[in-house]
Amino acid sequence: MKNIQDFARARSDGRKIVMLTAYDYWSARLLNDTPVDCLLVGDSCAMVMHGYPDTLAATTELMSLHTRAVRLGAPDLFVVGDMPFLSFRGSRDRAMDCVQALMQAGAQAVKLEGAAGHLDLVQHLSESGVPVMGHLGLTPQSVHALGGYRVQARSQEAAQRLVQDALALQQAGCFALVLECVPDTVAAQVTQQLDIPTIGIGAGPQVDGQVLVLHDMLGAQPKFQPRFVRRYGDLAGLLQGAVGRFVEDVRSGAFPAPEESYP
Ligand code: KIV
C-alpha cells in the first residue's frame, strides 16, 4: 500500500488489509520485503520495547524516534505513527507539534484513540493534508478509565455509541478505523455502516483488515497470549535456543573454528 487511496481501493475490491506493528529498523527492514500492507508504529512500543506496564509512558519524542527507525527500514511501506497519550487532548498547538514530529520522522498518517473531544482536530488534520486513522473499542490509553483491558461495546447502548463515534470520525475525515476488542457482530455492524475500511484486532473476521502486534504473532512474548492473537512463530524459542547453543560452543571451545578465525 502506497497511499490512503489504496486503503479505499482495498475495501471496494474486497481485498483484506494487513497491518502489523513495527518499532525498529531491523524488523522494519525485514517486513519491507514481505507482502504486509502497512506498518503501525504503535504506542504499544512503550510496553513491548521499553517494558512499561501500559502505553501511557509513550511520548512524542519516543514515538518520533521509533517512527524514524521504521521509515528507514521500510522505505516501501505505508507507515502510520501513533499519537501518544494526551498529546492530542491539550492545546491544538501541542497536538500539531506532535503530528509534525511524527510526519517529519517518516509517518504517512497518524492514528489517535477515541472520538469525543477531538473530532475538530481530526477534521483540521484532514484539511491540513494529514491522513488520520481512528481507533475505537478498547483504547489502551484509557485503560485506567476502562478498568482494564477488556472487551468493549458489549451492551446495545455501548454498541450504538461506538457506531455513532465511528460515523463521526469518518465524517471528520478519517481514512480508516482500527476496532480493538469488540464483539464480532458489533465490528460487522460498524463495517457495514462505514464507507472507510475498518481494521480489527480482537474484532472478529467481518472487518476490512486485521492488525496484530508483531511480537505477539511471532511468539516473542510467550506468556502474553490474549484470545485474539494467533502465534505464527516461536521467536522466544528461536532466540533462547540459538543463544544457548552459542554459549555452549564458546564454553566448550567449539566456537570459533579455524574457518571463523584469521590465520
Ligand atoms: O499501539 C498499538 O500497537 C495499537 C494496535 C494494537 C492497534 O494501537
Tell me what you see in this structure.
The protein folds into two domains: 4-232, Phosphoenolpyruvate-binding domains (TIM Barrel, Alpha-Beta Barrel), CATH 3.20.20; 235-263, no CATH class. Helices cover 42% and strands 14% of the residues. It is built from eleven helices and eight strands. The protein has helices at 4-13, 25-31, 45-48, 60-73, 92-104, 119-127, 143-146, 156-172, 184-193, 214-217, 235-252, and strands at residues 17-21, 38-41, 78-82, 109-113, 132-137, 176-180, 198-201, 209-212. The protein has an eight-stranded parallel β-barrel with strand order 1-2-3-4-5-6-7-8, surrounded by six helices. Helix 6 (119-127) links the parallel strand 4 and strand 5 (132-137). It is globular, with a radius of gyration of 20 Å. The site of 3-methyl-2-oxobutanoic acid (KIV) has 11 residues, from strand 6.
- Identify the CATH homologous superfamily of the largest domain: Phosphoenolpyruvate-binding domains
- What gyration radius follows from the Cα positions, in whole Å? 20 Å
Helix/strand structural class: alpha/beta
Q: Low-confidence parts, pLDDT < 50 over ≥5 residues?
A: none
Mean pLDDT: 98
The level 1 CATH classification of the largest domain is Alpha Beta
How many structural domains? 2
Measured as a percent range, the helix fraction is 40-55%
Report how far the terminal alpha carbons are from each other.
50 Å
Order of helices and strands: HEHEHHEHEHEHHEHEEHH
How many DSSP E strands? 8
- Report the sheet with the most strands, covering strand number, pairing sense and barrel closure: 8 strands, parallel, barrel
Just name the CATH architecture of the largest domain. Answer: Alpha-Beta Barrel
Shape: globular
- Hey, roughly how much beta strand do the residues contain? 5-15%
Strands of the widest sheet, in order across it, are 1-2-3-4-5-6-7-8
